[in-house]
Structure formats: C-alpha cells, structure tokens
Amino acid sequence: MKALGIYFLVNLITISLLFSQQGISDYQFVTIDQELSQNTVSAMAQDQEGFLWIGSRSGLNRYDGINMMSFMHDERDSTSLCNNYIRSLYIGTNNRVFVGSLAGGYCIYNDTDGTFGKLPTAERYPELDHVTVNAFYEDQKGNIWIATERKGLFMWRAQDQVIVQYRHNENDSWGISSNTVTGVIGDGRGNLWVSTWGGGLNLFDTNTKRFIHYRHDEEDVNSPYSNIIRCMTGGSDGHIWLGTDRGVDRVSYDDRGKYRFEHMVIKSEEDEEPFVLDLIEDKKQRLWIGSENHGLGILDTDDGAYHWYTVDSKKEYSIKNNSIWSLFEDQKGVIWVGTFNKGIFKLDEGNRKFPVYKHNPYDETSLTHNAVSSFYEDKKGNVWIGTDGGGLDYWDTEAESFTHYRKDEYPQMSNQVLSVMIDSQENVWVGNWQGGALVKRKGSSTFKKFKLPPGIKVREGRENVFSIREDQEGKLWFAVFRSGIQVYDPKTETFEVFTHDEDDEQSLSSNLTRYIFEDSKGRFWIGTEGGGLNVLEDPSTGVFRRFNHSADDTTTISDNTVQCVLEDNQGNIWVGTSGGVNLYNPENDSFTRYGYDEGFADVVIHSILSDDKGMLWMSTNKGLVRFDPETGKVRNFDLNDGLQSMEFFKHSSFKLSTGALLFGGVDGFNVIHPAQVSDVFEEPKVYLVDFKVSNESIKNMAGVHLEKGLIEGGQVRLNYDQNDFDFEFAQINFSQTSKNEYAYRLKNYDKTWQQAGNRREAYYTNVPPGSYTFEVRGTDNGGEWSSQEASFSLVVDPPWYASVWAYVLYSMFLLGVLYWAFQVIINRERLQTKLMVEHMELSKMQELDQMKSSFFANISHEFRSPLTLILGPLKAMIEKKNYVSNEEQVHMMLRNAENLLNLINQLLELSKLESGKMRLELVTKDVTAFLKPIVHSFSSLASRNNMAYKVVMPKGAVELSFDKDKLEKIVVNLLSNAFKYTNDYGKVTVSLREEEDKVVLEVKDDGIGIPQEDQDYIFNRYYRVRDHKSRKSKGTGIGLSLTKELVELHHGHIAFKSEENEGTSFEVHLFKGTMHFEAEDFELEDEQVAPISANQGIYEIEESLYKSASSNDQIAEEEDKKLPLILVTEDNTDIRLYIKSILEEEYRVIQAEDGNDGVSKAQEFIPDLIISDVMMPGKDGLELCEEIKSNVKTSHIPVILLTAKASNDSALTGFELGADYYITKPFNPKLLSLRVRNALKTRDQIRGQLLNKSTFNINPKNVKIASRDEEFIAKAVAVIEENISNSEFYVDDLGRELGMSRMQLYRKLKGLIGQSANEFIRSIRLKRAAQLIRQDELNISEITYQVGFNDLQYFRDCFKKQYGVNPSEYAQDVKEKIN
C-alpha cells in the first residue's frame, strides 16, 4: 500500500506540471470543407493509394483532400455497402478495404468496379451477415480475424477459405473470455491479443489455439485496470496500449519473459480518468487519447507529460466537440480526429496555419476591433495595437488578453488609430485619423492630446497622422496627411515643418505624406500618396530628392503611391508601392521592379518586413507574399494558410523581438513565425476520379468492360460512336489542395500538355478511332510539378466500314482497280510515249527546218550583199559601155568575190563533215612558223579598228602533226569572231604555248562576251548568238560549229570561258605525236609552207573600209535650189559607199551605219528620202521604217527598203509598216535610181495635191484630214490662225508651237507642200484676207492689219503675186459675181 501511495503522489505532481503547460500549447485542429455523409465519425483508415476512408453512423466516405465520395447501403443492390452504420475499418493486403458495420456484418470494397463483396468461402456462413463488427486484423499468414459484438471472434483461414468461430464457454477455461470482442492485434512475436468488453484481455496462442486471460485484480498491480477494454493499439517498441472505461493501460514484455501491466494516470481537466473511446500511438511516440466528453488527450510516452484539448471558443483552431470517437494517423503524419456530431478535424504539424487574432463578441479580453492598423512592441514583449474603429489595444502576450483604450471609456482617445510608436523614453505616441496625436508619458496611465503646429487646410486637433518615427537624435517625425512632415524636438520643444513648394523642386514632392522611415545612414525616406518617394539626406538643409514613376522608363519607381519603406539585413532599401516592390540602386539612383512577372499574387504592397533569414514578407490585397531576394523565389499565402483575410491594412506590420512577424488586416491580425513555415512538400499523387462517356460514368455503363480500376491505370475499349468523353482527376493531398494545379494530355491526340490550372476535368469530343493514353500530373503546394503521373488507356474502335477486315476488302478491291488502272496507264503511256517520240522527232525536224530556214535566210543575206557589190558595178559598166573602172571599185568587187568564195567553201566543208567524206591531210611541221603569218595578217584590221592586238608565240620550233588548210580555218574563224565581237579600242590576244603532251592555242578578247544562256549552244550547227542589246542574232551559225568539228577531226578539243561584257577566251588543245592518227591521214610529199601575204584577200576581213566624210552640214531654210537630200542606212560599208556612188551625181547623200544611227539622222536632217537595209544590228530596217512613219517630224519621208530576203511575207511586213518601195539584193543600180526618182516625183505630186484647193483645202477653219501628215498640216494651220493678226508671229514661233527646230520645220513643209515656212505662213494670211474681202465687211486697210501685215503696199504686192490681182480688183470681181 505504501508503494501505491508513492505512485499516486508522483502522478499528482505530474498532473500539476502538465496543467502548467497548457497555456503554451498551440496545436491547430482544422476542420475540412467537404461534407460528410454524417458528422459522427466512428472509424477511419487510409488505403495504399492514399485515400482516407471515413466511417460514420450513416454511410462510408472516401476522401482525397478535394472530393468526398459517399457509399450507402441499397437493399436492392447486393453489391452495395453492407450497412450505413460503420463501426470499423481496416486495410488489408492487396489494398482491400474491410468495412465492419452495426448489425450488418462486414463487406470488402472492390475498387475495380466500385462494388462491395465478401471473403470467398467454401461454405456460406450466414451468422456473419448480421453481426456487429468492431475490428479486423490480418495476420502474417493472410488469415482475417473479425471481432464482433456478442458473437465472439471469427477467423477466415486463407489456406482453405474456411471460417472458424471462437465463442465464450463458461466451461472452457482456455476459451475466449467474452463474446463481445472490441479489438484484435498482433504483437510481432507471433501472439494475438484480443480485447473484450467485460472479459478483460486475452492472449491467443496460435500454436495451441488457447486463450490466456488477463483480468482486473484489485490485489494485483500487474493486472488490467479494468475489464472493460474499449479499444486497443500497438506501440512502437512492441508494447500494447489499452483504452478502458477508467483510463489507459500499457502492456509491456519484460526481460523475464512476462507481461507487465502499467496503468497511466491521465486525468482530464475535470480531474477524472476518462472513458477512452480510441487510441493511437503516432510516429513521434505520442499517445493520442480519444475520450467520452473529456476531449482529446496527448501523452508523451518518453516523459509521461500529457495535455488535453477541449472545446475553446476563444481559439480559431480548437476541436468543436469533446467526444472523440475515432483517431487516425495517415501516411504523412497528419493526425485525424473524428468527433461526435461535429465531423472530422486534422492536425497537420508540417503545414501549420498562421495564428490569427480576431474580435470575439463573447470575450471582453479579445481584440477590440478587427481592422488592425498598427503595432508596436514594448520592452516587456507586449504589444500596443491600433485599430481603425476600436481605438487602441494593449496585448499581453503571456496572458493572451487585450486591454482596451476606447473613446467611450477615455474621451480624449480616438477610435480611428492610424499609427502607434514608443520612443526611447518609453512614451507611447498615437497618431489618429482626424484626431491628431496622443501621448502617454512613462509612468502615466492616461493618454493626452499632443498639439501639432497648424497644418495646411487642417483644423487643429483634426490632423491625420499616418506615421510617427523617432530619429537617432531623439526627434519625433510626424507624417501628417495634407500637411507634410512635422519634426518635434523634445529638448527645445520646437517644431520644424517640411511642406511642398511648387516653386522649389528641392522641397517635399507632396503634402499627402503617408510613411516615414530612417535608414542606417540617417537618411529619411518619405512616402506620399501620388507624389512618389522623397529622400532627405540632411535635415538641416531641407533639400529633398524626388523619385517619381515614369511610364517610359522601367528603371524608375513602379508607382507614385508609396506605402512603405524597409532596409533589409544587407542594407538594401526596398520600397513598397501600389505597383509592386522596388529595390533602390544607389549607384545610379534607379530602381529594380518586382511584381506579377516574378509571381506576386498582387502588386499593391501595404507593408514589408524582413525575417531573420533575409526573406521579405509583404502584405497585399490578395494575401501575403514572401520573396527571397537572393534566389528570386516567391511564395504566396492565402486563406488556406490561416490568414485573417486576403486584404491587409496599410502600413500595418511589426517584427517582434522574438522574430515573429505581425500583420494587421481588415479582419484581425496574424502572427507569423517564419522558422515554422516549411517549404518541404510531399510529392502529390494524382489519380483518376472518374471517366465518363457522354456524361455517363463508366462505372454505371452496361456493356463497357473496364480492365483494372481507374486508380490502377485501367483500360477500356469504346465503340466509334462513344468518342465524346471526359476525365475527372484529383490529387490525394490533405493540405491546401486549392493550391494544386494540373496539366494533362491525351497522347496521340494532344500535341502538348494542356494547362488546366485548378480545374480537375478534361473534356474531349469527336475523338477519331485509335489508341490513346490519357496522362495527368499535378503540382505540390509549392508549385513544383510532380514526377508521378496518372494514366488511363483507351481504344476507340473504328466503325465496321473502317475496321481491319473492311480495309482488307477495300485493299483487295483497290489493288484490283489499281492493277486494271495500271494496265490502262501502261498501255496509254506506251501510246503516249510513242506519240511523244514521234512528236519529238517531228519537233526536232521542225526545229532543224526552222534553224535551216533561218540559216539559209541569213546565208542568202550573206550571199546577196557581196553579189550586190559584184553585179551592181558590172551592170553599170555594161550599161555605160565603160569597162574601165576606178581601182577602188575593182578592189571592192574582188574582195566581195573572195568573201563569197570563203563562205561557199565553209558550206562545202560542212557538207563533207556531215557526209563523213572529209579526211585529214596531215603534215608534221613547226606549227609556230605556220601560224605566224596567219595571225599577223590581222594586224592591219586591228590598227584600223584602233584595237590592241598581241601575239605571243614560242621562241623555238614546236613540232606538231596537223592539216594546214584546216588549222588555218580554225585560226581564222576564231580570230574573225574575236575582232567581230570586240568594240573599238578593245584588245585581242592570240597565244601559242607548248605543254608536255600537247599544244594549246588561245584566242582571247575583251569584247561583249557570250550570254550565259547561250554558252551551251554556241557549237551547235546553225545556232547564232543573239546580241542582248540589239536582240539580234549575228553571224551565219556555222563558223564555231565548223571550228569544233575540225578540231575534233584532229582528235583535239576546244574549250572556252566567257563573261558577258568582259570578254571571251577560246583554247584549242592539239596533242603531239602521231599515235592518235591513222597512217593514211598523212601527206606523202613534204612541201614547204609558203609565207602568206598579209595583203592576201582571204585574210582581209574588212579591207580598207572607206567612210565618206559626209558633210551633213546645217541646211538653211533659204537653200531651196539644192539637190534633194537622201539618207542611206546600211551596216555594210561597201554597199553603203556603192549606193552613195550611184546617187551622188543627182542627189545630196548622207550615211548612217545602222538603224539607230539612221533614226537619229532622219530626225536631225529631215531628208527627202530614206534608203535602208532590212537586216542590220540594233534597229533593223523594219523597225526604222516603223519609227520614221510614226513620228510626225518624219512621217512624210518616203522609205525604200533593201533586203536579201526574197519572200513575200517580208515585203508585206515592210509595206504594212509604211515602206514605199521594196528592192531585193542584188539590185540593178539603174533600177535603184529609177525607184528614187519615182518616189520623189510621187512626193511632189502629193505636195501639189495638198496645195491644190480643189483637192485639199488648207484655208482656215476648213481642214478635215485623217493621215499623220494631214494632221500635221491641220495643226500648223490652226496655230497660224490663232496668231493671224499678230504681225510678230514668225517661223521660230510656229516651230516652237509644233515642237520642231527651224530647219526641221523647213524640211518638213518643203517635203509636204513644197513651201518654206515663211511662204506657208504668208499663204495662210493671204487666204484669210481673201475670205474677209469676200465678206465685204472691212475695208482693205483694216483687213491688212487683221491678217498680220503692217505695210499696206507689201500686202498688195503679196496678194497680187498669189491671186494675180490686187485686193481692190479682187473685191470688185467678188461683187460682180454676186450681182
């Protein structure tokens, strides 16, 4: 008994110590938002997937932190819940959820199809269908033990699926002690412990199948404290905890192999040992005790300390009922507390909510008002709190009580407190809204008014004091809204006032001051409303520097409303504004902005505090923002974290000496312990809640088989018309689930992850047939994406017409069609190929015919030109019977005959090459000696054309086998082309060089070059390169072709390089030796190569080109008696000189060397007739004729065209363009003279008709003409008529009006009407005079001046000259005719 007394004494001391600790306990029991099926929680368990199962007196609930799924009993459905009153829950292997009910037996949940069933048994055991099941246990062998009410203990043996029942038998001392079994657990040593109601504790020996009884014995301390054991749980070190109607017992196994019973004296606040309803030992070895009406007890198993948690209306997070029916610790260590009629609560120590203090109308010692505006801590660690509407509170942090200073109790107080501050003398200063300032001196218990200096537009005692600060010198700074800054010096009891001065940029930026802050350097930072930030570095100067927001400069402060300023542990200045927080950069007076882009929930910063680790805590309109300046990481806190409200009060924050942070808001204030805020989050597990097809859950759909459950990553096959479906998903997270975000994708359908935010559904419509996998992932509470993903596979079958067999049939049919089509196409292609080949052959023949036609047309020109210069002079000799001609004509005839012979020889050689009859006549000689006279014969041509001609030959002999005649043609052709296509003052170089096995002849010029598009065709027979400037083709098209074939006949090759407008280089490669030739290719005799004369005709391409020095002098208007002027346009100099020699005896002749020159000279000199060749470079004869006839200055000039083309089409084209005559080369010189004479005579006749009044009336106002020449005459008449009375209107004036020079006008009028310009003007004036005389309205003098004559006598002379009578006689004749 003595030992028992000592035992009770120790427990009593322990109780007293524990009660003393109750005030410091701050566990937060948070209720969940989701609604249970019923609010009395009787049992709880967590399955292997993480779902929390909650049993109630009316239904079973499954909770994932967001969704609460309820299961109810349905009598019509045998697969539904066995009974709605749940007594026990247990999670077995394979994630089987065992459910024990009140008088409804048990059932097991099947997650695959969402149904409930039972254990498989060999025989049905109906007694289990209606029992009350208190507990389950699965042993190491997989046997299931079922504790029942009044039916004893059942065991389902896994080996043979047989149920064994153990019942109490009074006659069996080794049987179970009671039929009301409350619990079954194993102890890890192979033993089974069975607790009973009234029968004490039983130890079941699994080997002997015997029950050992442990009952209460008053005489034995080592016995249970009560036989009524309500609950039982295992401990961490193998001991057993018993919950009885008289408290808690611990059963332990001692070193002697015996079990020891120890009663734990744990008395409630009512000093009673509780009736224990449930027990759990958590991972921290704390014992949680759920009692009947005594609340929740916690026992520290190490030191025996305990504490009771009961209903406390003063605390936000206390339990709401003292009857604790069930307890559970989940996988993450969260303690769940099930209560009677008040639902479920959780204690999550890893995710504590911020403590909040609010006004409680039922507690006078609570906060007086919820709008908290300011804080300040005194030396005792207590806090003065200002409220906006409730005055001032003094918070005793130890007693958790608030003392109030309200206006109703203290009339001098104001209920609208804006700021509070304690100075170094421990005086308490209070700033009010429209209440000025108050002060409570040290030692005084009352506040008194403190008079501020008169403000701007503010009544005394009605000031708005937003901020009060004491500086390092003990001076007090008041931020008085609308009155600037007022500084009070307690030593001198004087004020210094700083206000805004519009004329002083160094004054305060605004009088709307809100905040004052002094940094460690003694600088004062003043925040204003709308006026930006001010810095006063030296108060003695009164000079402020201003920082204002600029929308165009991101380095300025983010907003002009500055709410707060803070200096952090590193000395950095942070400025909170209505547009974010700003870091001041002292190097350049700039700011770095932080806000939405960095992840802030809001940018209206009301206050800033820095914790001990340098983190910035900011209050906003949307919660709290924590910002790490070093890493830039941001974390936002909201209502789920326990905030008083999302909105906080301006400037309302304070850091306590303990490191705790206070933030005041519109609905109380929060106390934040930064060290207790964890940033370690469990990786969330995402799962599929449901899968719906056309808004119907797959769990309820008939005919759709779901392989595996949704949670296990099931698979389903859908018909083609079941392609509208949606997924519902969630996280198993019991802490702040609203912060979790989701992303999902349907593989093979979505290209990227779809961001869902907080939405937990994904919808898909019209998904095409195919195989898909739906994947979803989520974030933890800190915003990091989880690596775990939930998935679900589905197959949308195609319709029958898109099935595999259908496609096989389609494929077979398609293959048949393709085979048929292939055959058709093959046959068609063969036919088309045949036609194409025929067409290509025809096209080639047509192309060849066209090339040949073009070639022969060109060759005919090449033939006719020299024939003209041969036959023409011969015919002239015969006609004149003069067979002695001048030397010049004889040389011209001989030169053109030799050119004609050379051309014919080329054609013959080409013909031989085509027929294969051409053979080589090789000699082996010094090729240098052979080529020198040939290449030097071009020197005179180079000299005449002012060209630089360079010949480079080896000094020694170069032996080569070659055909002399053919090599001569190769060299001449290449040099001829070089000179032909090189402009005057150009350069031609010919060089011969010897290489190891060959000789290379190079001809290079800097002429016009060969266009890129022509370079592939220049060696083609009959192909002629077009001059891109003139768009005409030059040459015959056989020279280079013949050259290439002659080179290849020597078994050599020819190559070239050319750039347009830069020049061309040809290289002929001839190989040394004789091995590549046949023996019959060599000549038998070896003749010496005779030197070729430089004057020999065949090499003289252009012999002595004489250009007559045509004077082309200015033709004066008065030169009427000169011969007619003929313009000869011909690109061949010989023909041009020959035509001139034919015509120069009767006419004046001027020359033009091509079409462009011809048009220019025609417009300059206005000739009486133009003779032009048709085929010329630049403009040809047809283009010249068209331009002459379309120009009003030259349209009257007759044009004779000379052509080598004998076709009618060419003649018709010429006549259509306005040509007057067509003469074909070679022409008879006499015929040419006659054509010229007739053309001029015809022009004279037309001129006479124009002058003849009967055929064409050029009197004023009577001109009606159509041709271009007639239009010109009509215009000239109209101009003269407009100026007919102007005696100063002369020839120059008429020319200016008609756009012609004096000479051009003269030639034009002379050619058209045979009158000079003066005669034409005078004629018109006189005809107008005759008209006026016939009208008989003016006298002769008046008419004289009316028609532009100043001299009456001169008018009479001119009139008589034109009409044969003087004006008076003409008037008389008119009158007589009228009479």
From TrEMBL:
PROSITE patterns: HIS_KIN, HTH_ARAC_FAMILY_1, HTH_ARAC_FAMILY_2, RESPONSE_REGULATORY. GO terms for molecular function: ATP binding; DNA-binding transcription factor activity; phosphorelay sensor kinase activity; sequence-specific DNA binding. It comes from the Bacteria. Residues 1274-1373 form the HTH araC/xylS-type domain. CDD domains: HATPase, HisKA, REC_OmpR. The keyword Phosphoprotein applies. The modification 4-aspartylphosphate is found at residue 1173. It catalyses: ATP + protein L-histidine = ADP + protein N-phospho-L-histidine. Keywords: ATP-binding, DNA-binding, Kinase, Nucleotide-binding, Phosphoprotein, Transcription, Transcription regulation, Transferase, Two-component regulatory system. The keyword Phosphoprotein applies. The lineage of its organism: Bacteria, Pseudomonadati, Bacteroidota, Cytophagia, Cytophagales. Its EC number is 2.7.13.3. Residues 858-1074 form the Histidine kinase domain. SMART domains: HATPase_c (SM00387), HisKA (SM00388), HTH_ARAC (SM00342), REC (SM00448). This is histidine kinase. InterPro entries: CheY-like_superfamily, HATPase_C_sf, HATPase_dom, His_kinase_dom, HisK_dim/P_dom, HisK_dim/P_sf, Homeodomain-like_sf, HTH_AraC. Residues 1125-1240 form the Response regulatory domain. It comes from Reichenbachiella agariperforans.
